[in-house]
Design a protein that fits this description.
elongated; Pnp Oxidase, Chain A; 434 Repressor (Amino-terminal Domain); alpha+beta; 8 helices
Length: about 240
Amino acid sequence: MSTLATSPLAQAHDPRWPSPPSPGDLSRRIMRRRADLRLSQLQVASRTGITPRYMEYLERYPAMPSAATMRRLAAALRTTPAMLLGAEAQVPGFPDQGKPADHGDEAVTMRLTPGECRRLIAPGGVGRIAFTTPSGPVILPVNFAVVSDSIVFRTGKGTLIQGHAYDQVAFEVDHLDEAMRQGWSVMISGQAHQVLQPSELRCLRESVVIWPWPGGEHEVYVRIVPARITGRRIAAQ
């Protein structure tokens, strides 16, 4: 049974297994998170309710655990299924977040084309809107959707965001995958507009699912029409 000091990646081919280790992305995230928490494979297996051999398999080969197993595994590793699957942007509070690549790794930054930026943000999610107030710049998180190549989100009446719903603004979306040592960031600048046209409002309400960042009533829809889109991707080689 491997321990924190002896990863399956560092071992020679184990005759108990039919093939050499070939970890997938999930495997690497599990190993990274387990190492962060200083847990053994046996400890995580026990907390998850799976056999030690299946735990070792998860770290050796690409696997597709059931949804129930993923939830228990995430709970054992004090994270979320989305984080283990690489589908969640960075979440504050995890150890070593933002830590530079290990010694010997070389981080490479690549510029993204506007088309690549649009593909990355197309699923929507959480972004940050930035605008200038009399007391200085303000940056706030919002849940957003991409509709007809523009950014759409909801806010409440009388909020700070509604007060700047006709400003020139910046909007930023990023994703960080600690285990894979890679991430990307997209920056959009453009004119914000509060959506007031009845037919457009009706279309958004009926066809676009946007859950506001805080709870409560958020019936004001704001659209950002991009004038400039830039982005970059960073990865360790």
